[in-house]
Fold this sequence. Notes:
With about 100 residues, the chain is of the alpha+beta class. Helices cover about 20% and strands about 30% of the residues. The chain has two helices and eight strands. The strands form two sheets. The chain has a five-stranded mixed beta sheet. It has a three-stranded antiparallel beta sheet with strand order 3-2-8, with no helix packed on it. It starts with a strand and ends with a strand.
Amino acid sequence: MKIVYRAGNRQSFSEMNGEAQEAVKTAVALVEGKAGFKTHSEAWWDCELVVVMGHNIYTTSITILPTAAAMKRRGNNWHNGSAYFCNGAFWANVSRQKVEII
């Protein structure tokens, strides 16, 4: 999975506090060699891990998002369009269920 770092209220990884850095490292380790995520009713392939860098864990966003091409292929036939990282796992954005990284 491709990892995309975006500036939030911090411009670099080193400006983030230790807790936020550890969360990003854990999320990156979970998606290493993977391509997407799966819920009980759908699977998304061709995804990116998007990290918006913040000062701490509350201002840092870690999300798995399908690429524009994947969204176009799926059309409007989807329920959970992304998965967010929280407490060491990824969760579906709408159903709030733990997802499987595939």
